[in-house]
Amino acid sequence: MMTTTTSRREPLSPALNVRGARDSYLAENGFTVEGYDAKWTQASFFGVPFRVPNTKRHSDAIKLHDLHHVATGYGTDLVGEGEISAWEFQRGVRALGLYVGSIVTAGLAAGLILAPRRTLAAWRAARGDASLFHSKTSYESLLAMSVGELRDALGVPRHGVATAPRALHAFAPGAARAQANG
């Protein structure tokens, strides 16, 4: 299995503005803010790329999911998505509905297969019920916070909860470069 890591191994600084941290997260993964409003979004499962319908609920969930990545420090490779899915599932995905909830469940299942210890550690790290999926705070207000304030609101330690360096999904623009330098 090919594992790809970025050169930025540390969690995002708690002093960063969430909007800037989100933009940095999007850039390092080859995602864009415009993608949130696209009719279809790119996804992959075990390295196989495909497109999924980007319903309103899915679009809203992806925005918040990306902020969960910013807060926790989990990567976007298969293991990182398993970790973030475990963290989100433990915090509660009922508000997401069947379609988006099933995506989180599939990520959790993949994480349990690929990296059971890290996925279970993410599950344990998620004890609590604070989640952006059922937050009353507006998205724009979340973007105006610092990463530290976002982590505080979610009950996440100031340095995040990821126990391994942030890794990129295989199709991220910097993934091949990082693999070659790794």
Explain what you see.
The chain is mostly helical and 182 residues long. It has one domain. It is 51% helix and 7% strand. It contains eight helices and two strands; from the N terminus they run H-E-E-H-H-H-H-H-H-H. It has a two-stranded antiparallel sheet. Strand 1 and strand 2 form a beta hairpin. Helix 3 packs across helix 4 and helix 4 packs across helix 5. The longest helix is centred in the middle third of the chain and has 18 residues. The protein is globular, with a radius of gyration of 15 Å. It starts with 17 loop residues before the first helix and ends with a helix.
Sequence stretches where pLDDT stays below 50 over 5 or more residues: 1-8, 176-182
Instruction: Provide the structure class.
Output: mainly alpha
What oligomeric state do the depicted chains represent? Answer: single chain
From the alpha carbons, calculate the radius of gyration and give it in angstroms: 15 Å
In round numbers, the mean pLDDT is 88
| Number of helices, where a helix is a run of at least 4 consecutive DSSP H or I residues | 8
Shape: globular
Helix content: 40-55%
Identify the strand order in the major beta sheet.
1-2
Biggest β-sheet strands, sense, barrel: 2 strands, antiparallel
**How far do the termini sit from each other?**
14 Å
> Can you tell me the number of structural domains?
1
